[in-house]
Amino acid sequence: MPRQPIPPETVAYEALRRAHMMGRVVIFTDAHILNRPGSPVYSPLDVFVPTLVLMASSLTLLFAFGLVQWLVALVLIVLWQAYGARYFVEWRLHRRTVTAVVRNLYNMKLLWQMGGIAVALKEWPEKNCVAPFGDWQAFAGDFLIDPEPPPDGA
Description:
mainly alpha, 6 helices, 62% helix, 8% strand, 154 residues, 3-stranded antiparallel beta sheet
């Protein structure tokens, strides 16, 4: 029984996935595109739960310790929201996106059509491919798939 040929996009995806696992390829994400409702990697829990937990804990401080400790906690919460929460949400979004991209080809195609991701060679970042207009299969074919070895007679 003859073997079925492997589709070229599967070969390109596997090469991209292997290169990422070996550290040859870096996946970049754009939070402005991916961190919104409708995106497959959007999580409203990342946006709202840390703030709600911090506010509830500050109210616990108000009732347990008093007004001064509550005001200090409230100032810390505002500083966290102003300066730290954005980086936390982007870090979590990046991790979710990279995990989804390397999980399977369907996720890769879905996120690529949506935009907001780019792949680049780690040693040569000028060689990159940006979604949705870049051709990631050609990128993988040019830089990640090893050419066929020549026959023994050549």
